[in-house]
Amino acid sequence: MSVIAMDGKAMLGYGNMRIPMHEDGAIDYETTFAMVDKYMASGYSYFDTCYVYEGSEALLKEALVDRYPRESFHITTKTSTIICETEEEMKAQFSTSLERLGVDYVDTYFIHFVTDRVMEKIERFRAFDWLRELKAKGLAKTIGFSFHGSAELLERLLSEEEGIDIVQLQINYLDWEDKKVQSRRMYEIARAHNVPIAVMEPCKGGWIAAEESDAAKVLKEAKPDASVASWAFRFVAGLPGVYVILSGMGNPEQVEDNLATLKDFTPLSEEERALTLKVVDMINAIPRVPCTKCKYCTNVCPKKLNIPKLMETYNNLIVFNALESSRYVYDMMIPNPNKRASACIGCGKCAEMCPQNIDIPNYLEELVEKLES
Ligand code: SF4
Ligand code: SF4
Residue 3: its pLDDT value, please? Predict the structure, then answer.
């Protein structure tokens, strides 16, 4: 039985995976502070981060923990077992997270990125037992896991693991019937177990929030004053059992837009849902790599390649079908030969980490063929 109380209304969560940056790669503190202040002023207070979100925990300390009373916000972070070799390493992540965040407990502690492949480690490290110990000691008020595995595994974990308060699932209208992500099926399993749901990637990393795409035009025609992102939020917020919707907001305007959507929230009508299906067909008709720029892959790449940037290059190549200009942009964007697609050694570690199941080495090979030969 979860200790998280639901009042039937999904709240907006402040996702901190993609943090605001300046052009030169420095963290944009001014924008972050403004976003945190706007978000806190709205009455919501749920902040989500993770041990492997680069710079995110330390940024939350400065923008939130040092500026607001501890009891005024709910902070979650996660242990990333996939990058640990031992149980001790996994446990050390918790102390590091507390230190980076400047707190002596977290409101929710998750096991990050649970997949079928990573279960061997999770079981060997007795990660769920350890989470329950943290909860019993009051170091984590609630516990859960973020999930990217199979429906069978989700069913097993929610049946067998005691004391799970919340499960974090990738749910959006683009992935609702997607054969790999299976948002609908995952949602139904969590509902059958009556576990509150934290929704991640409600806009699929921005894919269904872009204002300028052909798909966006369809939504704009139907509702000219509504943002494209608002459709994605209304889709997930209309699902019973959704406790929080995590939004990786990039600027104060996005915070405002998300807040306005949820404040005057009405679920999508039948007609509007039908329109989202049309949008899904339009998006799926363009064979792009569904990279959400989460950067999980870059943490494990031995060559330290900027994989999201390489995937973006691939997508531009496909969408614009302009070989010469793609080559030019590629040369400008990634001039260092050690950082280009041809530096990939094909180890496959990145693909194991990719929540979108992208066969990254394969796309890199194609990039080499098209842009480097
Ligand atoms: S397959 Fe290539 S891109 Fe992926 S982790 Fe290995 S070296 Fe990096
Ligand atoms: S390739 Fe996959 S793991 Fe890497 S940034 Fe894109 S979605 Fe994330």
Answer: 61
337 and 236, same domain (yes or no): no
The total domain count for the chain is 2
- How far apart CA 163 and CA 360 sit, in angstroms, is 36
Q: Is the CB of 295 under 6 A from ligand 2?
A: yes
Q: Which residue has the tokens 């005057």?
A: 264
Looking at the structure, tell me whether residues 336 and 257 fall in a common domain: no
Looking at the structure, tell me whether residues 280 and 329 fall in a common domain: no
**Does the beta carbon of 354 sit less than 6 angstroms from any atom of ligand 2?**
yes
Q: pLDDT digits over 295-331, tens only?
A: 889 989 999 999 999 998 898 888 766 778 788 778 8
CA atoms within 13 A on the CB side of 164: 27
- Per-residue pLDDT for 69 more than 70? yes
Pocket test for ligand 1, best of 307, 334, 339 (most atoms within 8 A of CB): 307
The residue segments making up the domain with residue 72 are: 11-285
Farthest CA pair distance, the chain: 60
- Looking at the structure, tell me whether residues 229 and 270 fall in a common domain: yes
CA–centroid distance, 76 to ligand 2, in Å, is 22
1 has a pLDDT exceeding 60: no
Q: How close is the Cα of 306 to the center of ligand 2, in Å?
A: 10
